[in-house]
Amino acid sequence: MTSYLGHDKPRQIFRQSLAKNMLHHAWILAGDKGLGKAGFAQQAAHFLLNSRNLPAEFSVGQDDEAGHLLAAGSHPDFRLLRRGPKGDKEEKKARDNGLDSLAEHELARNIKVEQIRALQPLFQNQTSISEYRVVVIDAADDLESSGANALLKNLEEPPKKTIFFLISHMPDRLLPTIRSRCQMLRFDPLSDEDMRIVLKKTAPRLSDADLEALVVAGEGSPGRALKYVEVGLAELEGMAREIIKSGDRDNRLKSDLARKLSLKAATPRYRAFLERAPSLIAEQIKGQQIACSVHAIEKWREASDLAAAALPKALDNQAVIFRLGSLMADLAQENPAK
Questions:
Q1: Tag placement on the chain: N or C end, fewer CB within 10 Å?
Q2: What is the pTM of this model?
Q3: Residue 207 falls within a domain, yes or no?
Q4: Which domain range does residue 275 map to?
């Protein structure tokens, strides 16, 4: 487990509720992806499952019984519900290498109702070794409708000494009846300085230039920035910024970028660049006070629409990236500094 910077307020609210003996039975951890909500839930679970000998603060290590059992995935009073494998092939891969080894496309679309029903034996008995039971659902947004209704029954008649953490990236889309039975904890983006600390600790080999590029690209989300580290987005962003700066009149940079992202092995980098490109254009428009803003905004809108449609419509990778590069190059002509 690690410490999570920038989330002092949610931690304080949770600790005060416990100190006043007013700990709510269900919490929605709300905020954008990658802010550390799952890490907070894991820390809070560790804290509660070690509750017969409560530490002064949230645990950040695993050097106790609860921590070791959680790390091994074998704590009898803890359950983590996530989307499972999509099919038999993915099921075998998960058994051999763990669920975290599965890529997004290898996971089921939803958390199934059967996974919620499988919690019932846990609730029918006393806790095994801890004062509390803890259930983490990551993410509650992924619950199929029947699963959400089954969960609602548990929230309406909560089992004794059971705490639910519902991680949600889009809490407004949860059932109103679920929201009404939970206490909301909102997680804000981290500051640039906290982002630097997280990235330096997690990816110490980053150059200063790559670090700063990822701080900007992460937009306050360590998870997003670290995903970009894994796919080498800093290099791609550097090429994109050079296209915006120079206009790339000979198409050399656009062609190189398109070539790098057209290979099958580059699929994760391609997906990450599609996610990042519209934001990069928007930042350039805002930061450089580009003239003819109506035209510039039209380019951002086209880039956003193209990036959103590229995967669902299986558009040609190379053509998509070249067009995104062309939209970026057009910004050089809009820039009054040129």
A1: C
A2: 0.76
A3: no
A4: 232-334
